[in-house]
């Protein structure tokens, strides 16, 4: 049994996570094995997200004043929480894969994305977006393209100039 001080520390940490997380998803993990739970934790950790299971009574002390308060009615039964702080798309993708596994017992309860309540369809749409790395690659290409276009145009211009000068030289030599 945890001491009052330990419980207060858990509530404080949860409140901080509820305030900082860009994505908070509540799940029902009823019937999951320890191996499945560990697999879920690993897949989320790989993308910078976190999965926690805490008693609902402690969560009820942590959510007041945070965006998670909007989904307080979902804190019933066995509840696991997914926290994503940076790359919410990657976390949504990892969770979606887990939801869609053949024998997955993990169930969606509720979610808050960037301070707004979201349903399972919104999480699936979020998971279908390009990830952070892909978006950064697209941005790099977009920033690089104009520079490449100017370089190509200048190179093409110089080639045309050389061709014109060679034609002028050939005309003067033949005259």
Automatic annotation (TrEMBL):
InterPro entries from the UniProt entry: Ribosomal_uL10 (IPR001790), Ribosomal_uL10-like_sf (IPR043141), Ribosomal_uL10_bac (IPR022973), Ribosomal_uL10_bac_type (IPR047865), Ribosomal_uL10_CS_bac (IPR002363)
SUPFAM superfamilies recorded: Ribosomal protein L10-like
Cellular component annotations (GO), alphabetically ordered: large ribosomal subunit
RNA-binding recorded as keyword: yes
GO molecular function: large ribosomal subunit rRNA binding; structural constituent of ribosome
Pfam families attached to this UniProt entry: Ribosomal_L10 (PF00466)
Keyword terms, alphabetized: Ribonucleoprotein, Ribosomal protein, RNA-binding, rRNA-binding
Gene Ontology biological process terms, A to Z: translation
HAMAP family referenced in this protein's UniProt entry, alphabetically: Ribosomal_uL10 (MF_00362)
Function: Forms part of the ribosomal stalk, playing a central role in the interaction of the ribosome with GTP-bound translation factors.
Protein family membership: Belongs to the universal ribosomal protein uL10 family.
UniProt subunit comment: Part of the ribosomal stalk of the 50S ribosomal subunit. The N-terminus interacts with L11 and the large rRNA to form the base of the stalk. The C-terminus forms an elongated spine to which L12 dimers bind in a sequential fashion forming a multimeric L10(L12)X complex.
Name used for this protein in its record: Large ribosomal subunit protein uL10
Organism per entry: Desulfurobacterium thermolithotrophum (strain DSM 11699 / BSA)
């Amino acid at each position: 049994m945890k001491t009052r001080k330990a419980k207060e520390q858990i509530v404080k940490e949860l409140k901080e996570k509820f305030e900082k997380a860009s994505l908070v998803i509540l799940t029902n993990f009823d019937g999951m094995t320890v191996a499945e739970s560990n697999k879920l934790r690993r897949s989320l950790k790989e993308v910078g997200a976190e999965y926690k299971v805490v008693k609902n009574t402690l969560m009820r002390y942590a959510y007041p004043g945070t965006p998670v308060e909007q989904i307080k009615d979902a804190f019933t039964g066995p509840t696991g929480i997914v926290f994503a702080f940076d790359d919410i798309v990657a976390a949504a993708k990892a969770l979606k894969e887990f939801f869609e596994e053949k024998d997955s017992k993990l169930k969606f309860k509720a979610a808050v994305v960037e301070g707004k309540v979201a349903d399972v369809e919104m999480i699936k749409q979020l998971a279908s977006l390009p990830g952070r790395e892909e978006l950064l690659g697209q941005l790099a290409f977009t920033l690089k393209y104009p520079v490449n276009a100017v370089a190509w145009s200048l190179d093409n211009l110089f080639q045309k100039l050389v061709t014109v000068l060679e034609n002028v030289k050939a005309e003067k030599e033949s005259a």
